[in-house]
Description:
The protein is 50% helix and 12% strand.
Amino acid sequence: MYSIYEKIREQIETVVKDAILRSISKGLLPEIELPPIMMEKPREEAFGDFSTNIAMQMAKQARKAPGQIAQIIIDRMKTDGTFVVRVEAAGPGFINFYLNNEWLYETLDLIDEKKEDYGRVNIGNGKKVMVEFVSANPTGPLHMGNARGGALGDCIASVLEKSGYSVTREFYVNDAGNQMEKFGASLEARYLQKIYGEDKIPFPEDGYMGEDIIDHVTEYISEHGDELAQKSSEERRKDLVEYALPKNLKRIKDGLARYGIHYDVWFRESTLYSGEIEETMNILKERGFVTEKDGALWLNGEKAGLERDEVLIRQNGLPTYMAADIAYHRNKFVKRGFDKVINLWGADHHGHVARMKAAMDAIGVDSSRLEIIIFQLVRLFKNGEIAKMSKRTGRAISLDDLLDEVGVDAARFFFNLKTSGSHLDFDMDLAVEQSNNNPVFYVQYAYARICSLLRKLAEDNIVVPDAKAVFKELLSKPEEIKLIKRLAEYPEEVSLAAQTLEPSRLTRYVMDVASDFHSFYNACRVKGEEENLMYARLLLVNCTKIVIKNVLDLIGINAPEKM
RNA sequence: GCGCCCGUAGCUCAGCAGGAUAGAGCACAAGUUUCCUAAACUUGGUGUCGCACGUUCGAAUCGUGUCGGGCGUACCA
Length: 563
């Protein structure tokens, strides 16, 4: 068992199902096909600990009023040997269950037993899943979009790991194709401008405007001089790219490492050019998905279910980004055998989603195995004003800048505070504020407070007891009960975060844990209480510590023992 | 024009495999510390769920239309 919810769900399902079957056999309900019995937590505490809407689900088929059905079921319900102490029909036909506190005390046993594994669930069954994220162009520094995608992707990967999937984190390095051409052309232009003067050499219209390009050539010249001016353009670009690309990649790698992100695989686009793109194009040809026109090779839109045709191989013989990407995804699924692939793309790439999915079906890979998460872009706020970031204008606020200003914890926390679909305004002033306005501090403070309490008790040789040896039934104050209920939700939260691919719910969850803890702390003393009560509370405090730590570890945020 | 995302309290957002009086945090106001970290807690009001139709016993949640904001619509990536 990994979760008390699991146990309660089983109990309620069994009890309800048995009651329904008994009712049917007595002719009180018609013989119908049973809908799945859903257990939910009522919004209001007054509606019991858990409820089910099964009576309403059955109403149509059974041709009876939901309230009536609920009562029939309840009258035949046998709850011996379960947590359930009272059942009632309420509202439009809900069946509400009231539990004794035993399930809460078992929660503490479970947390104490599992410790850092509390919250681990198994919905993945070891399935191989890849999360590909950030995959920033190695033509410049990481920007805010990468920062959000990075925090999100890394946490999604962590949540899936906790949920029983075998996870690979991957970064796709676009070290080939058109943008490398543009990168080379941009470097070359800046190089020649340095030597002959800015007004003498035009900068390519679609070149990379960033300061970093200039920095590269400045460094290059100081290390290697200006003899490249004499060489051919082709050679010049090649040398400059070979100089700058590894530097950019290292910077990206270091920046992400600082951000707490470590990849299993850095996959280079260039490796696809020695056969795999061609192979993939041949498969598309064989399956009849391509047409040739105007000297180019196209993906047939009509056949693939797209609005229009898409170029795969240009007139000049070079594959498009899309051709490489199809080959890349074929590599993920076919060559490397991932059951499921999750890609994180910024909103500016959403147009590519339908095309990639269609392309997967076209090469014979079920496109439902490819999940693409589109996250909305970020607006950075500082001093109440929008702080612009743009790789093109050269006035970019990079990931490094952000981390310098707000730190890793705040960045990761804030980027995981909202659902990926929501537009995100990042308030840099709030992120560094050391007050209760700042949710990062709020949560970390709760943890530090717990650690401090434990230290104080340890000074008097009072240590956390074994859960089994504690009189847990002494925990009965509203603040204690509320906190334990919250802790009991954790595995469920992990499971939901994995299913919806929304780690933001864990960030919000840990804020709730912190809040419930602070309330408990203000209402209940530990040190100095009667011994049995003190140990019971001490156990609860330590369980809270375990849960907060587990969540913070999961989302990659520091849990400070002192603040 | 077409496509995708978003529109819920003054602000930032949850809720959206339809279900019980729509929730948090912030802001604002008043209180709480001889006591384990007051970076904390307690109490207080707020909503045409963008708008309009439709499906349903029941819609913030599903469908259609519409308005507003963002993004996309290249032989760019």
